[in-house]
Amino acid sequence: MSKKNFLRAWVLLIIGIIVMAGLALLLAFLGRGPGELAPMIPPPSPTPINDPVVASVNDQPINYSSWMKAVLLDQVMSGLAGQTAPAPDETLQRLIDEELVLQAVPPEQPFTAEQIETRITELERNWGVEDEAVAAALKQVNLTRPIFEQSIGRLLMVQASQDILEAQGRDIALWLEEQYASAEIQIFESAAALSVPTAQSVEPTTHVSPLPSPVIGSPLPSPTHKPETSSPTPLAIPKTASNFILKRVRGGTFTLTGQLSQGPVVLVFFQKCG
Amino acid sequence: MVALAVASASSVRGIQKRTQVTYPMLADPTHQVASDYGVYNLLNDNLAAPSVFIIDTDGRIVWSRVGRNAGDRPSVKTILEHLP
After folding, report:
1. Are A102 and A158 in contact (CB under 8 A)?
2. Which residue among B11, B27, B64 sits closest to A84, beta carbon to beta carbon?
3. What is this model's ipTM?
């Protein structure tokens, strides 16, 4: 054997010893004897320390990162729509509702990029903004367009699942109440202690109210006020309440101005009429 | 509190009978009011999106929430917290 080959053999032997020692150490660390089969390496934990579970719905976890993403997206979308962003706990509630819906009616397949884009275009039209305004609002809270698209895709799936439930004759609100009674829903106390972004970040980029400004002594527009457009996709939520007169279903007439003369009014638009 | 739906008077009357609520329930079959408040057909369902507006006595909308789906509604607690 030449000197060169001798050295090569020694190097290979040393490398082999190192590899074997490493393997033995690894097996010892995993609590297995060297004669046993190496265990399956467990998959990464779905709940790393820096991404704790804040709630669970029938054992399906909702992680802190998902929650925060939803909170920030709510801020973006509410800001663009000229609305007050929901509080973080309301967003968590929404995620739980959505999870219940998706668990009851799992989506058959995800929406295509084209369908998502179409929905985004509709939303932008409703908000009266262009892509650039959405991009700027997302940037303001360090979110990206793909995350936004993913979120819209999820909303579409939830909506599709809800449509199926409604087609089965279910009232979603009542159905959710039933689910809350029967499902295993946990909101972990640690969720309250975690810091959440404040709802200050996103200002409406466009907030053009199609309604008249308040006038001293006559704060509400005329009852005969007509919207400037009959479009089913109005631009933004008005800042001033538009007066209206409607017949009460139990007889008589309701006037918003008349009701306001007695105090503040909570006006609720609801969907289900039996 | 005033509840309003884009629906016929008869269907709103039906729900008022069923629920026995005492506050005014109104029908907005032409969706004029829902359109004025910017909530008509936001969910592409030809209805008003579930939404809440708190209006002070000066006619200002001091708080509002518009649902992103049929079940997305603020809690009573949240509404009470925003009353002027």
Report:
1. yes
2. B64
3. 0.96
